[in-house]
Amino acid sequence: MRVRLAVLAAALGFSAIRAVHAQERAAAGWRGASLVGSTRIAFDATYDRPNDDSDPPVSLFGGTAAAVRFVSPHWQLGVNPSWEWVSQGSRRYYSGAAVLSANYLPLTGDVSRPYLGVTLLQGGATHASGFGAWGVQGGWIHFLSPAVALRAEARYREYSGSARLEIADVLLTFDPYIFGRANEPVTKLPGLGVFDAAVFADYQYRPTHTGTLDASVAPFLTRWLQVGTTANFSFYFDASDGAHYIELFGRGYLPISTRVLPFAEFFGANESLSGSNGVSNRSHGERGGVRTYLTSGVALDVALQWRRFPAQQQGKVVFAGRDERSIGATLTTQFRVARPR
């Protein structure tokens, strides 16, 4: 299974390099433009009330963000906060962390380069002692366009606090960039031949052997219609166990602007949890929200989600169906199918 995960992650990365171009490269040629000012970004946040029947109801708000900027041709500096807030009536629980990183790119070139870096982390939580971490990383960045890069990275982190913990892993992901040479205007809306795509593959080999693969692809059929799938697979190799989430969706846009597009979406999903012995949960629902393009090839979606779970029977016990509502904001990268030269 470990070999399969590694091969799948590598195939996704190399296929992206060979098979796609990002949204409409600039005619002047972005490959000769300086990296300085380009900023890798990340943002994923959700507000959820998982059980409105509880008294008082529980509210959850959590997320991560990142901004890693090329401050010179050879240096990247970044910050990466994460947070979680849980409340139930007068009770509150907070946790969070802030990560500072610095990467050095020793070679020249504005498309594909290796790097080495260091990381410092400080975190804390309500009713708990704080913790810190330091780490090192090394990898390779290959730009598919001014706004999208493929990144392969090996990381080591050592945490100190109530207990010492070492974590080592390798990852492969698409990174969105804005500013600098990535500051491309959106001149027209995407249509047939353009698709959203995201990949995050991670294999942790210390202290445990686990793997994660998050992937999505959503081609545009017209300017106002998009279909796609999202999948998440988790592998727990030491326990010979795993979990998955697979979703199919269709989305319709109101193409009134190149900057802000309202949309409505219908989805159906299948999910299995670790230790469920193959038992899966099905759900379906709707999302409604807006999309805005931060630059050509990078979009931010903000949406309200309604998810419904049908009633389930286990033996003689019937569990009533339930509804969940949440608000989420996520970034996505966008590509154009390669045209023959």
Word description of this protein:
The chain is mainly β and 341 residues long. The chain has one domain: Porin. It is built from one helix and 19 strands. It has a 17-stranded antiparallel sheet that branches. It has a two-stranded antiparallel sheet with strand order 17-18. The longest helix is centred in the first third of the chain and has 18 residues. The protein is globular and about 65 Å long.
Outline of this structure?
This protein has 341 residues and is mainly β.
Describe the structure using short key phrases.
disordered N terminus; 341 residues; 1 helix; mainly beta; Porin
Major sheet summary line: 17 strands, antiparallel
CATH architecture: Beta Barrel
Residue share in β-strands: over 45%
The Rg value, from CA coordinates, equals 21 Å
**Euclidean distance between termini CA atoms:** 38 Å
CATH class category name? Mainly Beta
What is the number of beta strands?
A: 19
User: What structural class do you assign from the helix and strand content?
Assistant: mainly beta
Helix-strand blueprint:
Elements: H1 2-19, E1 20-22, E2 39-49, E3 58-72, E4 75-88, E5 91-104, E6 112-125, E7 128-145, E8 148-160, E9 165-178, E10 194-206, E11 210-219, E12 225-236, E13 241-253, E14 260-272, E15 280-295, E16 298-309, E17 312-314, E18 317-319, E19 322-337
Antiparallel strand pairs: 1-19, 2-3, 2-9, 2-19, 3-4, 4-5, 5-6, 6-7, 7-8, 8-9, 9-10, 10-11, 10-19, 11-12, 12-13, 13-14, 14-15, 15-16, 16-19, 17-18
